[in-house]
Amino acid sequence: MNQPAAMPFYEIPFALTLGFLLLAPMAIAGVALINAGLGRSRSAAQSLLGSLLMMSVAVIVFALVGSALAGDITGSGHSFHLAGKTWNWAGTSSFLLRDFATSAGRNQLAVLFEVLSVSFAVLIPWGSGADRWRIAGGIAASFVLAALLFPLLAHWTWGGGWLSQLGKNFGLGAGFLDGGGAAGIHALGGLAALSVVWIAGPRKGKFPREGLSTAIPGHHAVYVLFGSLLALVGWQAWNLAGALLWLNVPPSALVPVALNTLLSAAAALSATFIVTRIRFGKPDASLCANGWLAGLVTSSACAGLVTPAQALFTGLVAGIGTPLLVELFELALSIDDPSGAITVHGVAGLWGLAAVGIFAPQSGQGIAQLIGISTLLGLIFPLIYLLFWLLNSVVPFRVVPDGERLGMDLHELGGGAYPEFVVHRDESYR
Prior knowledge:
The chain contains 15 helices and 2 strands.
């Protein structure tokens, strides 16, 4: 396993890292397509248009406001002193990216990585709120995530904030490590998805009686599976760029990062295939896609920090857990999550972060990772829920009942994604 704390500071090849970042949006495109495919046919256009709008809002808001809180890679920031230690909690960069053009190349790449990351993070809850979350509510949530929540977490993790300094201040390994955004993108997005599902409630007809659940299958398995393949390309680029930027991996060590990413996804898919084959008699395509994504999410934390055998193990655990947790959340907790994002991004992201600590050779790394995970669950999650709850009182998340019956395409856009096809009416509305 690599040891970032002991590595010299490498000069990042600018063109190579930029090339990876230009390919990274393929992961965003893949997840947007998966979200659309896992929803109903009468909400497909609204799903993809909402994805584009939420990404656009996130990019603009982060550039204008959020980037200042995220700070830069120099580690400068607003700090306070407690117990003889310095706690760096927010960046001090200029608003509107005024100094971006004159900043160092590495800092420019870091900002681009963060812009792409916040674009990805806002799409994760959008899939969980499918078929009942209004575009206006999604845009409002994107604003909050991009202006405050993501920037703070990005600074704590990547911008020299207090989580990244746990090693320096307390001797806990190399500090909290998150090379590919398992915390800043996936855990954040998964926790936001859980908040949205709790606030908006389930789709009508999903839970007709207590303890029972009605299956509402996604409308396009080909979208889901092709989106999974598309996501692999972006994920490889994402993990490689993150390893260069945040883990200080030399270019000569990039091949293991790419291999570990693929191994984690492959192990997770294989495990989910077997579990669903045993559980249902036949493999489930949408759950297998979720398992594949869970393996990729797990790799976001540890692809640059584990051996190939360890990457296989982490993916295997993610793949076994994904279908079981999706079923548990739905049947035991009555959570209606069409995209499975709470499990795929939230739980798998947290598992990947924990795996970094489990396999770390340096003393204290496991504790540093647990502190980061505890921060996500004990501080970030309540803050997300509180802010979303307040937003919902101003900009209601859920569509009116008649809009859900008609479908989000007709209600919000005035036309369907498939106007030449007959859309069958839901039994729950008869």
